[in-house]
Specification:
The chain is 51% helix and 12% strand. By secondary structure, it is of the alpha/beta class. The chain has two domains: 33 residues; 98 residues, Rhodanese-like domain (Oxidized Rhodanese, domain 1, 3-Layer(aba) Sandwich).
Length: 138
C-alpha cells in the first residue's frame, strides 16, 4: 500500500505538492481566524512585558475554583453581552483562555469581528496551564 502511495507521488509531484500546500494553507488560515495560538510561556511573557489582558471564558464556578492571576472572567455563553467589558483593552494584546482551548477560537472570531486587533488563544487552555504546574488564584 505504501509503495503505491510513493509511486503515485513520484509520478504526480505537481498534484501531491499542490495538495500538501493547500492542506497546509487551510490549517494556517483556520488557526489564525480566532487569533494566534500561544503556549503558556508566551502567555506569561505577554502579561509581564505587554500588559496583556487574560480573558477566562469558563463559567464562574470553574473560574472560582482556580484561574490565572489577573484574569477577567467573561463566560463564553455571555461574551456577546459583555464584549464591551474589554473595550478599554482594544489596543492591547488579549489572551483568551477556556478549559481545553476549544471555545477560545470562536470567542476570538467574535472579538476580531468587533475590531479587536491582537487576539491570542492559550493552546490547551487551563488544562495545559495546570499541567505545566503554573500558579492559579482561587
Amino acid at each position: 500500500m505504501f509503495e503505491k502511495v510513493l509511486e503515485f507521488a513520484s509520478n504526480h509531484p505537481f498534484l501531491v505538492g499542490s495538495f500538501v500546500f493547500l492542506v497546509g494553507a487551510l490549517f494556517f488560515t483556520e488557526s489564525r481566524k480566532g487569533g494566534a495560538s500561544i503556549g503558556t510561556q508566551m502567555l506569561v511573557q505577554l502579561v509581564n512585558k505587554s500588559d496583556a489582558l487574560v480573558v477566562d471564558l469558563r463559567d464562574s464556578n470553574e473560574f472560582s475554583s482556580g484561574h490565572i492571576a489577573g484574569a477577567l472572567n467573561i463566560p463564553f455563553s455571555s461574551l456577546e453581552k459583555r464584549i464591551r467589558d474589554v473595550e478599554k483593552y482594544k489596543e492591547k494584546p488579549i489572551v483568551l483562555v477556556c478549559k481545553m482551548g476549544t471555545h477560545s477560537s470562536s470567542a476570538g472570531k467574535k472579538l476580531i469581528a468587533e475590531g479587536y486587533q491582537d487576539i491570542r488563544r492559550l493552546s490547551g487552555g487551563m488544562t495545559e496551564w495546570a499541567s505545566s504546574n503554573l500558579p492559579v488564584v482561587k
